[in-house]
Amino acid sequence: MPHALRVGGFVPFTSIDYPQQLSAVVFCQGCPWRCGYCHNQHLLDSRSTGLLDWQEILEKLHRRRGLLDAVVFSGGEPTLQKPLCDAMAQVKNMGFKVGLHTAGCYPDRLKDLLPLVDWVGLDIKDLPENYPALTGAGGSGDRAWDSLEILLGADMPLQVRTTVHPDMAKEQVAQLCTNLSRMGVADHRLQACR
Question: Contact 48/8 with Cβ under 8 angstroms?
Fold first, then answer.
């Protein structure tokens, strides 16, 4: 299947990746950014070999209908892959809710996926101007914050997460929290860098 989703990992059961839902997590291979504190570095290279077979994962999910509430697409960066839309539609057609963990790298692709998504966990890493130093990608902060605006405008159930990395000053974190609150983010979680 030449256009199947490239999957670098699969968790068949979790209670923490989609709020108040029992879910499975599909870890999509590849990410355009290179954050120094990434905890899924094995998923960064989109050309990686040794991937899991998407059809086998679908079969496992089929057997879990009635036991799980949702399937979460995480990464890497799921929106990097064009087959994500079809993969989401497949699990949605099985009766699962669809969750998405994203860093907001591709706002236009995110917008196209919204009709299939029930909940989003969005990583907002820092203030927009500080992103290039974190991600190694120019314009990355604008893209992430554009994605946030799209999600807020869509009235999508949303959790915004920020990993407080060692280079973040307390004042920086406070300003970030203030900016997100002013934009209308109701659920913002700070997490320690591990």
Answer: yes
Q: Which of 11, 38, 3, 179 is nearest to 99 (CA)?
A: 11
Q: Which CATH number fits domain 7-192: 3.20.20.70, 3.40.50.970, 3.10.360.10, 1.10.760.10?
A: 3.20.20.70
Handedness of CA 93, 98, 102, 107 (dihedral sign): positive
pTM, two decimal places: 0.93
Contacts 24+ apart (CB under 8 A), 57-62: 57/7, 57/10, 57/26, 58/90, 58/91, 60/10, 60/12, 60/24, 61/24, 61/91, 61/94, 61/96, 62/94
pLDDT in tens, 150-188: 999 998 899 999 999 877 888 999 999 999 999 999 999
State in Å, rounded, how far the first CA of the chain is from the last one. Answer: 37
